Amino acid sequence: MKVFLDSIGCRLNQSEIETMARQLLAAGHELVSSAAEADKVILNTCAVTSEAARDARNRTRRMHRQNEGAEIILTGCYATVAPQELARVPGTGRVVPNKDKAHLVQIIDPQARLDLPLFDQEPILREFLAGQMGHTRAFIKVQDGCDNHCTFCVTTVARGAAQSRPLGDVVAEVQALAAAGYQEAVLTGVHLGSYGHDREDPAGLFHLVRAILSHSDIPRLRLSSLEPWDITPGFFELWDDPRLLPHLHLPLQSGSDHILRLMARRTRRDSFRELAAAARAHIPHLNLSTDLIVGFPGETEADFAASLDLVAEIGFARLHVFSYSPRPGTAAANMPGHLPKAVKKARAGQMIALGESLSLAFHQQYEGATRPVLWESVVGANEGGLRWAGYTDNYIRVLANGPDDLFNQVTSTTLHDARPDGLSGIIDGAGRAAPPPNHASRITLPIGPTS
After folding, report:
1. Predicted local distance difference test score (pLDDT) of residue 342
2. What is the pTM of this model?
3. Domain 2-108, what fold?
């Protein structure tokens, strides 16, 4: 069976798609690069904004036009909160909600086996690393669901209560990936900072990261988004191990205390400011990024100005800016004071412009500096070789000319020509090849996360 996989939205969705890819490979199926080649198509959808939902509908129609004979299977958050709406989209074959997503591969192939001994997995993991999903970082789902009640967010409706994977399973998966040659693992979840809370461990994420660093050989470990109130005392001491990369994404959402209260966010301007300062004091070369929602119901000009001021003061390296869009089933959708689209668009434009100036300023600090870069993909070619894209340890995207064997290598790279979206680089050496797989360990490990 030929299968095309696609994903919209967050890194957790990407992690789930990668898990399905490994499961399909283990079951003997072929992954293809387009819907036109496929017997079945799986699209992991997102419902966080109306634009993400519209993207899912448009992609479904487009893939159906490309291949009317392929069955298109839609899963994910949008498939969970609006299954009937998606079922009406031309080309939709099946709609699989999140509660059944972990078994989706077995739904389409009842003979598929989802747990293999590590020594049987390694060839699959190495094949997957060779470019199946187009990047070198492995996204590891460590928990699902969320117990927060942010008034704008549909994720709790779509994903349910927080559930953490067993610590040992996560550590074993990371070590299996390291043994197969992966250079970097990224820990993901709907509410990553709540890891372990459902298992009565309020410092669960601290214990998980410490266990991975102590009991795996992964060269680079990165964390995805963390809510500000989930940072426990001593958490930043984890960065004493240089393998934990200097990058934090802490969603602010608004710089106005008034709007933060309406959003039911458990942070305020002063506490966020203090947290950012503490993070920078403990983590050299920290890349601090955030999410901002503009045009939330009831947001005044003064509220928006407060957001602009706080964002500029903190000096984030990167902003993810969203215009508020009401999501069915959320408290904010029924709040008074919804703003006109033109106002939201104008405010989003101002915030994006500020974000680009802050990103440029952050990148300019590294002109002439040397950083380790993990090379991920080819973006072009020239007479001297290939044009590569990769990421520094502190998550700066770098473009550089190099030979054809840079994939999954880390090289020392001198940076220059800062742009809002990254820097250019000159590779200082031939690079460091990925370590050979370690076949000594013979533990059994699920190919994908367990629910």
Report:
1. 98
2. 0.84
3. Rossmann fold (3.40.50)
